[in-house]
Fold this sequence. Notes:
Mean pLDDT: 91
Order of helices and strands: EHEHHEEEHHEHEHHEH
Amino acid sequence: MSYNVAIDGPAGAGKSTIAKAVAKKKNLIYVDTGAMYRAMAVFMIREGISVDDVDAICSKCQEADITLGYENGEQVVYLAGENVNAYLRTEEVGNMASAISPHPPVRAKLVELQKALAAKNDCIMDGRDIGTCVLPNAQVKIYLTASSEVRAKRRYDELTAKGESCDLEKIKADIEERDYRDMHREHSPLKQAEDAILVDTSQMTIDEVIEHIICICDSARKLEKICKSMENAE
């Protein structure tokens, strides 16, 4: 049986950054589900599909050829064979991804691939509904969050470091709007799984968060071994 770690949380909480680091330290395969939805968003934008055209979104998503690969130990998302990693982190793509992700046909297409990856590999997966829907039986579930102010500032710093011009208040407003959409969507809304551990990173450094989650994973594995030993003894 594979060993799975599920990390959920709102936009800008640092899920991808933390999950990648933990994956390297714990020798797990990292699966960035958000990147898969963003690749679908790139596809929709290139096809000229409006966020309001639900019928087109639901039909067109079946044509998207999205696959995952690994180059130099890093996950690469391919859209029709093209490496689209460079396009995934723009605000336009992020907003489109949030808008299309609630639609069941879009989710069904991508969740199937996510479940297959997790069934075959020890992995850490992050997204909005991993612990609640995609990997409900994951051995470790984390709900990673931070205040909207902190998340906006982190995103602002990331964009300005790349030389992009941006507005902090607009980024904060976009994050809060995405939070609302993700938490109130009809299908697979963003929420903390009942058995997930809440980790608020507002006052934590990246290294502190990484070590905290590694400790959670180590404790879970120790408990799992103890339970198996007890079962064998019986």
